[in-house]
Design goal:
about 25% strand, Pseudouridine synthase, alpha+beta, EC 5.4.99.27
Length: about 350
């Protein structure tokens, strides 16, 4: 799904094995708030081994004898790994829920339970902390050189293969839906819409990297303020703007396509439209679905990045990514990986 996308630092020559065991890919979800300890919503932090989010949510619902529709979570997590994430369920204050009271499969472990006055909603997430182990590395020295590049210059902020489903199936389903097939399941419909506009974002972003425009401003670019969803349109390019871009104070963005006009203008708008023109069915389908136009930075910088060389062919890597960013996009720039 990502094979055709451009690299920032060139395709890596180093090879490595990734996700040999579930423990080689560890993810901890970080909420943007601390649960209050009071309220009618029970927050449950689960550690999952080799299970996906929807399966875990159903298991929780069965244990609590409630409908799966009452189980909320901030986002979907990869099945292949050991991941911890939060779920919330609205239950009467008189209901006592503790780790010991939940009967769950052995692949799920309750880390903590706490009450809060609001449900956990989709997208309400600060980010994720990753601990990744790469094995059978062909050259640890070359991999360390790439890590320095990534730490200093970032990686393309591509949506990962997980967004598109096995073999890109979510895109196939999106195309069928846009062609008129009715999708009754709201969850699946949302997945297909997200896959479609994520693909469009990846294509526009890849074109910027392919043309060496990832750090070159164009008139009409929408630039995001770092750490914010706010942006402004570049009307004229000067040394001050270039300096702000170089320092990371502002970031070039690409469209998350939807209903309404592109926010970009001038040269940047023409560039974006040229990439989107190759996918008219997806663009028209997203407009009909009334998804709101948004912007997303084309670069992401792994935060708090550190690593440890375990032996001559094994390295453990730790870093934090903001919500919506994919560790696989970091690994893709680091090494050519295989699953075992």
């Amino acid at each position: 799904m990502l094979d055709s996308l451009a690299y920032f630092h060139g395709e890596p020559a180093t090879t490595a094995a990734f996700k040999v065991e579930p423990e080689d890919f560890q993810v901890t979800e970080i909420l943007p708030f601390a649960p209050s300890g009071q309220g009618e919503h029970v927050f449950i932090q689960l550690q999952k081994r080799g299970e996906n989010t929807l399966w875990a949510a159903n298991a929780l619902a069965q244990s609590l004898k409630v409908s799966p529709k009452l189980v909320s979570f901030a986002g979907l997590k990869d099945r292949q790994g050991v991941t911890s994430q939060w779920f919330s369920i609205q239950l009467p204050v008189s209901s006592k829920v503790s780790p010991a009271s939940l009967a769950l499969p052995s692949s799920l472990k309750v880390l903590q339970t706490v009450r809060h006055h609001k449900k956990l909603r989709r997208g309400v997430l600060k980010g994720n902390q990753f601990v990744i182990t790469l094995k059978n590395i062909s050259s640890v020295e070359a991999l360390l050189e790439r890590l320095d590049l990534i730490r200093n210059r970032g990686v393309p902020n591509y949506f990962g293969a997980q967004r598109f489903g096995h073999g890109g199936n979510n895109l196939t389903k999106a195309a069928q839906m846009f062609a008129g097939k009715r999708i009754k399941d709201r969850e699946k419909r949302g997945l297909y819409l997200s896959a479609a506009r994520s693909m469009l974002f990846n294509q526009v972003t890849s074109a910027r990297f392919q043309n060496q425009l990832q750090q070159t401003l164009m008139v009409g670019d929408c630039v995001l303020l770092r750490g914010s969803h706010s942006f402004f349109v570049v009307e004229a390019i000067d040394d001050m703007l270039r300096a702000r871009l170089k320092s990371g104070d502002i970031q070039i963005s690409a469209p998350l396509f939807g209903d309404g006009d592109l926010s970009s203008s001038g040269t940047a708008r023409e560039f974006e439209q040229a990439q989107l023109a190759a996918y008219p069915e997806f663009c028209e389908g997203l407009v009909r679905a009334r998804l709101k136009q948004e912007r997303r930075a084309i670069l992401v910088f792994p935060e708090q990045i550190q690593w440890r060389v375990i032996d001559s062919s094994t390295l453990q890597l730790e870093f934090f990514l903001p919500a919506g960013c994919y560790a696989t996009s970091v690994i893709r720039e680091l090494a050519n990986v295989c699953p075992s």
